[in-house]
Amino acid sequence: MAEQIPYGVVSSVINRLGSLAFREISLIYGVKSGMDKLKDTVEAIKAVLLDAEQKQHHDILVQLWIRKLKEVLHRADDLLDDIHTENLLRKRDDEEKARGKVLAEDMPKLNFDWRVVVMGHKESNKRETSFFVHKEDIIGREEN
Fold first, then answer.
1. What is the C-alpha separation between 34 and 99, in angstroms, rounded?
2. Predicted confidence (pLDDT) at residue 139 exceeds the cutoff of 80
3. What are the residue ranges of helices labelled H in 56-130?
4. In the chain, where are the structural domains located?
5. pLDDT confidence of residue 122
6. Disulfide engineering: 9 pairs with which of 27, 73, 76, 131, CB 3.0-4.6 Å?
7. Which residues on adjacent β-strands are paired with residue 128?
8. Is the pTM of this model over 0.70?
């Protein structure tokens, strides 16, 4: 029985490895040469797929090679998905950290008055800090 040739997966892997996103990722993580080698290898495999398709009808070893190739290509495609997802999560985390830093840096420019206020039930001893308080809620700051 002839194996289905994984042209689509090969093309997908080649396109993803050549994309701007993966070039950026490979530079960030210092794996550019490894990604380039992987892309070259997959392109070389793609070049022999037509021959493999013809030979598989009468060569069991070629059929086995194609079966193994499909497994490896699917794992490589999954790995590229994982790398891309991790990169997106890293970017999101970096952006959130940067936003928090900008907010903290803006606080002194706005000349906020820091006040300690007690909020909640009378029996609660919890103290909270807030920028938005009513004067009647301020306790122990008469001199200020």
1. 34
2. no
3. 60-106
4. 7-110, 113-144
5. 56
6. 73
7. 117
8. no
pLDDT at 144: 57
Other CB atoms within 10 Å distance of the CB of residue 9:
17
Q: Residue 132 pairs with which residues in a beta bridge?
A: none
Neighbouring CB atoms inside 10 A of 61's CB total 9
Q: Of all helices (H) and strands (E), which one includes residue 37?
A: helix 32-55
pLDDT of residue 69: 92
Nearest to residue 40, comparing CAs of 67, 17, 7?
A: 17
Asked if 17 contacts 84 with a C-beta cutoff of 8 angstroms, the reply is: no
Q: Is the pLDDT of residue 134 over 90?
A: no
Placement of tokens 């093309």 in the chain: 11
Q: How many CA atoms lie within 13 A of 137 on its CB side?
A: 15
